[in-house]
Each structure stands twice: as structure tokens, then as C-alpha cells.
Design a protein that fits this description.
The protein has seven helices and 16 strands. With 281 residues, the protein is α+β, with helices and mostly antiparallel strands. The strands form three sheets. A six-stranded antiparallel β-sheet has the order 2-1-6-5-3-4. A five-stranded mixed β-sheet has the order 9-8-7-15-16, with helices on one face. The longest helix is centred in the C-terminal third of the chain and has 16 residues. The radius of gyration is 19 Å and the shape is globular.
């Protein structure tokens, strides 16, 4: 089901989408959101990340783009589905209005909400074999723009094709300094004993919502020390655990990288605490 500028339909307005700057120039940002039992998980974080991204891209934020308005629009879109479905993947896209050259009018925005059903209302741990590799054909640029969730995902797409062609479940992306930044579809965490490391935003990794939640959780656990610091490819084979995080799947443990095999003890522990935070937060 689609919600285009407040109008709910089963098909997009072709005229509007054919002139969409998000399609023509990748001039769009988006949020991927999980909804469980009518509750939008981590909604405040999603909303403020969206607002920050729009400001950085100099989009005009409408006065009615309040947390309450967007939450109501999401709930209104979800309500069109069968009442027996309780878990959804929602994608909220915002793009600048039509125009090849910037004018005050083209700085106004339009939005689209896409709603799809999910099987699991909360986060579960996938313990099936999950093998990864480095994607080295192209690099992410470190810096602020790479931390935004925009529709410019060419490197991720090419990496996904590489992974599929070579029978990998995922790939890790590098920046121009050859530091490991993130996975194709989420942030990464490395566990080495009591130390847990994740790449810093300055290296160009996505400013992920689940990344933020796990950083908060780890800050409350005295048994672990979290470091936001650059990750060298050589560190991957020294880690005890490696896992990927995003809003929809939660925590995905990696089982193999080349000849290295990983455990998932910490991932299991964090998953339980993440589900509690999702329910209560």
C-alpha cells in the first residue's frame, strides 16, 4: 500500500513519479522503519534523523511535518492492511519537487510512504551460515554526506550483485582510506574479548538507528568497552564475533569471513536487551 502526499492508493501516481527528483537525481532521503503491534519502533530517533538529513540537504521542511503528523500518516497507511497482520516494514521517502535547476519552488518537498508486511514482530537471531567478503571495486567517501540515508546507493547495489554472483550473504564496504565502513545493508560491530568496536561516523558509515541503540545499550553494560574507531580489514580475522545491524532485521551474526569462523554469544545477549528496549522505548 502507498501513501503519496497523504493520498492512499495501491499504485503510484505515474505523472508525479516520472518527474521525481529522487529518481532522476537521487535527490531524496528515506527512513526504513519497523512497526510492531501498532507501535513504531524507535520513532523519535527516525524522525529526528529524517529532519537532520533534510536540513543537511537544504530541503524545505513543511510546518506540518511534525512527529505527530508523520506518525499518523504511517498509521493511516498501515490501517489499510488486514487486521490480522501485526508487523510491517515502512519506507518513508522525501524528495525535492520537480525541476532540473534549483529554484525556491523546487526546494519544497513531497513524500511517499510504502508499507509491506513482515513475519516477525520483534527481533530474532538468524543462526544460519552467513558468509561475507570485502567489496573492493568501489569505495565510500568518508564524511557527512555518506552518513545520510539517501537514494544514492550505487555502491551498495553493485556490492549486492557481487555478493550474489559469488555466493556471499553480504559484503563489507571500504572507504577511500581502505578502512572497513559498513555492510551492504547495515552497520557493523566487531567483538574481541570484552572490547566491542564499530566504525565512527567520520569514516563514512551510515548513521544507523540500530547502531545508536546498541551504542546506548553497551554504554550501560559494565562487562564491555565500546570503541568508535576505524576498523582495518586485518582486524576482521582477529575478532571473536562480527555482526551486522539494521532496523528491520535487528542483529545478524556473521559466521564466516574467508577462513575465519565467528561465534555469536554477544550478539545473542544484545538481541535480548534490544527487544526489551524496543518494547519499552
Amino acid at each position: 500500500m502507498l501513501n503519496l502526499n497523504g493520498k492512499i492508493s495501491t499504485a503510484p501516481d505515474i505523472h508525479i513519479l516520472s518527474e521525481n527528483r529522487g529518481l532522476q537525481y537521487a535527490d531524496a532521503v528515506f527512513e526504513t522503519i519497523k512497526v510492531s503491534a501498532g507501535k513504531i519502533l524507535f520513532w523519535e530517533d527516525h524522525y529526528f534523523r529524517l529532519m537532520a538529513s533534510m536540513r543537511i540537504l537544504r530541503m524545505e521542511i513543511p510546518m506540518n511535518f511534525t512527529p505527530e503528523f508523520l506518525e499518523e500518516e504511517i498509521q493511516r497507511t498501515i490501517a489499510t492492511h488486514d487486521e490480522t497482520v501485526h508487523s510491517f516494514r515502512v519506507k518513508l521517502l522525501v524528495w525535492r519537487k520537480t525541476g532540473g535547476k534549483y529554484t525556491p519552488e523546487t526546494n519544497d518537498i513531497e513524500y511517499l510512504i510504502i508499507c509491506e508486511t513482515l513475519e516477525d514482530p520483534f527481533y530474532t537471531l538468524n543462526e544460519e551460515p552467513y558468509t561475507i567478503e570485502l567489496f573492493k571495486d568501489h569505495f565510500i567517501n568518508s564524511g557527512l554526506l555518506s552518513t545520510l540515508k539517501t537514494t544514492s546507493r550505487t555502491i551498495n547495489i553493485l556490492g549486492s550483485i557481487f555478493a550474489k554472483e559469488n555466493d556471499y550473504e553480504n559484503c563489507l564496504l571500504l572507504n577511500e582510506n581502505k578502512q572497513v565502513v559498513e555492510a551492504l545493508n547495515g552497520n557493523i560491530f566487531l567483538v574481541n574479548g570484552y572490547k566491542i568496536k564499530t566504525p565512527p561516523l567520520e569514516d563514512g558509515c551510515l548513521n544507523g538507528i540500530l547502531r545508536k541503540q546498541l551504542i546506548t545499550i553497551l554504554g550501560q553494560l559494565p562487562d564491555y568497552v565500546l570503541e568508535e574507531t576505524s576498523v582495518s580489514p586485518f582486524e576482521l580475522q582477529k575478532a571473536d564475533e562480527l555482526f551486522i545491524t539494521n532496523t528491520i532485521m535487528g542483529i545478524q551474526p556473521v559466521t564466516n569471513y574467508r577462513k575465519k569462523e565467528y561465534s555469536n554469544t554477544v550478539a545473542k545477549e544484545l538481541l535480548g536487551k534490544l527487544n526489551v528496549k524496543a518494547r519499552l522505548g
